[in-house]
Amino acid sequence: MGYLQTHASTIDNEHKQKDVLSINDSYTTQQQNLYFEDISFKKNDLNINSDAASIKDLNTETTVFTFLGNVEIVSEIVIIKCDKALLEFKDNELKNAKFIGKLSSFQQFNEAKQLIASGTAEVFEYEHTTNILRMETNAWVNNGSNEVSGNLITYNLVKRSIIADSENGSPVKLIIDSTNIN
Questions:
Q1: Is 50 among the domain residues?
Q2: Bridge partner list, 73
Q3: Nearest-CA neighbor of 37 among 55, 14, 24, 25?
Q4: How far apart are the first and last CA of the chain?
Q5: Does pLDDT of 78 surpass 70?
Q6: Which of 64, 81, 94, 163 has the fewest CB atoms within 10 Å, measured from its CB?
Q7: Can you tell me the distance from the alpha carbon of 153 to that of 139, in angstroms, rounded to the nearest whole number?
Q8: Domain extent at residue 46
Q9: How many domains does the chain have?
Q10: What pLDDT sits at residue 177?
């Protein structure tokens, strides 16, 4: 499934140790939940760091990882930071993710590692198969020339398109750079 690097210490903090655990389908957990502190997790092109993590149902078809505290998720083109992340893997592939926190943010980069979009919200939901980020509550997105804010924004990471929706009559604010309109 991936690799976990964790930090363990005794009560008096005199003995500290870093371990790298290989997590795969043969790891024996008997359907138990696992808990780790000071986590670095690598799976395919995802690198995840957090203060703590738990893993639910590691040997089942669907495994849920919960990362807590100073969560940073780095892929080839996106960096996401949040207080809490729930990642659902099915058949060893990321299917869905939810990112929660008052300071949740994302930054998207192109192949040349230049920033092309960024955004913030209190809740992000990511659908891996469609590459859609759904942002709720105090959402804001900037794609370099346009800026959108509201309580519900959908951003397509592949098409780089922004869709803002009014939720319960809440306002949507658009700032459009007219020099980029053809």
A1: yes
A2: 48, 80
A3: 55
A4: 47
A5: yes
A6: 163
A7: 6
A8: 33-180
A9: 1
A10: 67
Three-state SS sequence of the chain: CEEEEEEEECCCCCCEEEEEEEECCCCCCCCCCEEEEEEEEEECCEEEEEEEEEEECCCCCEEEEEEEEEEEEECCCEEEEEEEEEEEEECCEEEEEEEEEEEEEEEEECCCCCEEEEEEEEEEEEECCCCEEEEEEEEEEECCCEEEEEEEEEEECCCCEEEEECCCCCCCEEEECHHHCC
CA–CA separation, 175 and 59 (whole Å) = 48
Q: How far is it, in rounded angstroms, from Cα 144 to Cα 165? A: 20
Task: Check whether 68 has a pLDDT greater than 70.
Answer: yes
Contact between residue 5 and residue 36 where contact means Cβ atoms under 8 Å apart: no
CA 136 to CA 150: how far, in whole Å? 8
Q: What is the pTM of this model?
A: 0.75
